[in-house]
Amino acid sequence: MEDTAKKTPAVMIKVRNLRKEYRLEDDTVVALKRINLDIMQGEICCIFGTSGSGKSTLLNQLAGLEKPTFGDVYIRGVPITQLSENELAAFRQKHIGFVFQSYNLLPFMTATENVAMPLMFRGESKRLRTKKAVAILKKVGLANRLRHYPRQMSGGQQQRVGIARAFVAKPDVVFADEPTGNLDSKTTIEVMDMIKAFARKFNQTIVLVTHDPEMAKYADRIVTLVDGKIVNDTKVAKGEKDEQTT
Ligand SMILES: Nc1ncnc2c1ncn2[C@@H]1O[C@H](COP(=O)(O)OP(=O)(O)O)[C@@H](O)[C@H]1O
Ligand SMILES: [Mg+2]
Which of 60, 61, 64, 233 has the greatest number of beta carbons closer than 10 A? Predict the structure, then answer.
C-alpha cells in the first residue's frame, strides 16, 4: 500500500468542464470550451498555442484571477472557483507564485523589497523577510543589485527579481505567462534554467504559457490549445527532456 502511494504523484491542479465566455456588446467570445485537465505535483506543464488560442485565459482561470463561466478548478483539492474574493486572495498568497512577461515589479521598491513582498502576508518579521529575499536574490545572481530599483536593471535582471519573488515563499504552484517574451535568446535560457531548477528542488508545479516551441522543451508535458480547446496533450520523454536542457 505505502509503496504505491509514494509512487503515485498527487494531483495539484484539477480542471473540470471549464468554459470561459467574454460577453461583448453584441457578441460573445468563447475563449475556452470543455477543458478537462489534471496537472500533477512537481510537473512542469506547458500550455502551448498560437496567439489568441486561449492560453492566458486558461492560466487566469487556473490561478483564480478570473471566474470561469462554467466548470471548476481545484488546487490541492480546494475548489478555488467556489471561493470568495477574500478567500481566494488568501489562498493565492499561501500557495501560488506568478512570473509575468512584463515583470510587474513595484517601481518604487528595491529588488530586495520586491522579493520580500510575498512574505509580508505570512506574518514574518521584517528582518527574516529581508534575509530570505537577499538569500534568494544571491541564488539568481543578483548579489550586487539588492538595492537597485527596477528601472536601474536590465530586462533579464528584472525577470530574475521576478523569479526570486515568485519562489521566495515556496508556493505549491508557479504560473508563468510568456515569462521570456521580452528577453533575448541567451537570457531566455538562463531564466528558464532558473525556473526549472527552483521547481525541481522543492517539487513545485509550474504552469508555463508560451507560443514559442523552444520554450516548450523545458516542460515535462505540453498541452496544446487551438481555439480554446485542448487538441494535444503530450508527455515529454525523460531522456529527451534531459538532453534538451543540459
Ligand atoms: N477580456 C476579454 N474580453 C474579450 N475577449 C477576450 C478577453 N480576453 C481574451 N479575449 C479573447 O479570448 C481569446 C483568447 O485570448 P487569450 O487567452 O488572451 O489568448 P492567448 O493568450 O493564447 O494569446 C481571444 O480571441 C481574445 O480576443
Ligand atoms: Mg496570452
Answer: 61
pTM above 0.90, yes or no: yes
Residues with CB under 6 A from ligand 1: 22, 24, 29, 31, 49, 51-57
Q: Is there a contact between 31 and 54 (Cβ–Cβ < 8 Å)?
A: yes
The three-class DSSP label of residue 218 is coil
pLDDT digits 0-9 by tens, 12-22: 999 999 999 99
Note the residue count of the chain.
246
Residue 12 phi, psi dihedral angles, 5° rounding: -95, -45
Q: Does domain 41-65+83-245 have CATH number 3.40.50.300?
A: yes
Q: Output the CA 89–ligand 1 centroid distance in Å.
A: 23
On the CB side of 18, CA atoms within 13 Å amount to 31
